[in-house]
From TrEMBL:
Belongs to the amino acid/polyamine transporter 2 family. It holds the Pfam family Aa_trans. One of its GO terms (molecular function) is L-amino acid transmembrane transporter activity. This is Amino acid transporter transmembrane domain-containing protein. Keywords: Membrane, Transmembrane, Transmembrane helix.
Length: 471
């Protein structure tokens, strides 16, 4: 039996992989050692195998999902100028939050997920609260993606079968791809998914620009876009619209996992920069163009704004992109549970029966949970908005402000100069603004759920009705 001693040396090429020497009958064997995954051997998966371009693709896919399709509707609520300003502010705050994730990971290589941050800063309670929030958030978003896939399949097949069957098919496909063990192998699927989704959205953007009027506009009278430069929303409407922007950028908690599986985490910054540039340009460009041509008749999701034919084609192209998002949203909480159960065990990186049993159990357990909530809970769209406002904001704003303060507050860690004072103010602002958006957005979501029930009594569980008619 090998007696292992962990003799950490300098990082290899800056990627935080250290060497561990195992002494035994075979002599001294030196293997790469990761603070999270342990020894990296040829007998198991190599979790540290994602390049910076692949990381950027995963980051983009974690953010560009169904959220981008709701941005034109949010512009209709706020007006195009306030909408762009609010979107840009959310982009700036979340970009800083995402950057802090990479910095914190480099300083604390033992960090794997946002729950580890909770433990480090707030103790056991912080760990469990953020852990539960992370799993629930992505499980609910995965459920929303399953519904998105079912909408696409209904649109393409003209409601070929019962919608409940399409949701089940979406769960099987999403769970199957999510069972791929390493993000390195999933990065290519993420790139393909991003490409498909962007193509479909650009197609709709071009179509609404060349068509006489959007699909839902009146057909019997002359029509001109009624887009608003400045809107006049109520407080609830404004908060809900801003929450849409937050949801569109709320991939931050996933970035811990992406950083943990990079070959060289020092390249995290370049991956993030590429991601945020592409995402923000897409959000602003697509949102402005679609809203300018559609005005108040913009559909949400926006793929239904250009008429039945374009809707069918665009959804057909977008389905792989929505599947890729569902795959990530199932994989991430499944991987978190897997690492938490087996961390420190040889089974984490070995192709053993225990390894495969725990891994598949975690992935398919999340898949089943997401399928149940996507099929069984009435007013699901409102409930997802509620979870996004409550948990998405919580994990994309407040912890990152606390992370900077944790690493820089004491005099021993950072010289207290003007720059330090500015960053303290900024960090406190991020925490405060995140808390406000969380509380206000949750309130707005609850009001929206109540209004939905008052209008139509909610939706039925496991319904066969065509859910693409309204989009």
């Amino acid at each position: 039996m090998l007696e292992k001693t962990h003799e950490q040396k300098a990082p290899l090429e800056g990627d935080q992989l250290h060497e561990v020497r195992s002494h035994g009958e075979e002599g001294t064997v030196t293997r790469p050692y990761d603070p999270v995954f342990g020894e990296i051997t040829e007998d198991g998966p190599n979790y540290r195998n994602v390049g910076w371009l692949g990381t950027s693709a995963l980051m983009i896919k974690a953010q560009i999902g169904l959220g981008v399709l709701s941005i034109p509707q949010a512009f209709d609520v706020l007006g195009i100028v306030p909408g762009v300003i609010c979107l840009s502010m959310v982009a700036a705050i979340t970009t800083w939050s995402d950057y802090i994730v990479g910095v914190f990971k480099l300083r604390h290589p033992e960090i794997y997920g946002i729950d580890d941050v909770g433990w480090m800063i707030f103790g056991r309670i912080g760990k469990e609260v953020l852990a539960a929030g992370f799993v629930l958030y992505y499980a609910f978003v995965a459920g929303a993606m399953m519904l998105g896939i079912s909408i696409g399949l209904n649109a393409v097949t003209m409601h070929g079968v019962c919608t409940a069957v399409f949701v089940a098919v979406a769960a099987i496909i999403g769970g199957g791809f999510a069972s791929i063990r390493t993000l390195g192998k999933m990065s290519w699927l993420a790139m393909f998914g991003v490409t498909c989704l962007v193509i479909s959205i650009v197609m709709v953007t071009i179509a609404v620009g060349v068509q006489d009027r959007p699909a839902t506009a009146p057909k019997d009278i002359p029509w001109k876009s009624d887009f608003k430069i400045v809107g006049n929303p109520t407080f609830v409407e404004a908060v809900s619209a801003i929450s849409t922007f937050v949801f569109a950028y709320a991939g931050t908690p996933a970035f811990f996992s992406f950083a943990a599986e990079m070959r060289n985490p020092q390249h995290y910054g370049r991956a993030l920069l590429l991601c945020q540039i592409i995402v923000t340009v897409a959000y602003v460009g697509i949102g402005c163009v679609v809203y300018y041509f559609c005005g108040s008749y913009v559909a949400s999701p926006a793929l239904g704004s250009a008429g039945p034919l374009i809707k069918k084609i665009s959804y057909g192209i977008a389905i792989p992109g929505i599947v890729a998002t569902a795959m990530l949203c199932i994989h991430l909480p499944g991987k978190y549970l897997f690492v938490r159960f087996l961390r420190g065990s040889k089974h984490l990186t070995a192709n053993s029966v225990v390894h495969w049993s725990v891994w598949l159990g975690c992935v398919f357990g999340i898949t089943l949970f997401a399928y149940i909530i996507s099929s069984a809970i009435p007013v699901f769209g409102g409930l997802v908005s509620f979870i996004g406002a409550l948990l998405g904001t919580l994990m994309s704003f407040q912890p990152m402000g606390c992370m900077w303060l944790y690493d820089n507050w004491s005099k021993e860690k950072r010289k207290r100069d003007i720059q330090w004072a500015f960053m303290v103010v900024w960090s406190v602002f991020v925490v405060a603004s995140g808390t406000f958006l969380m509380v206000a957005g949750t309130y707005g979501s609850v009001v929206g759920i109540i209004d939905s029930y008052q209008k139509n009594g909610g939706s039925k569980a496991w319904s066969c009705a065509d859910n693409s008619n309204s989009v």
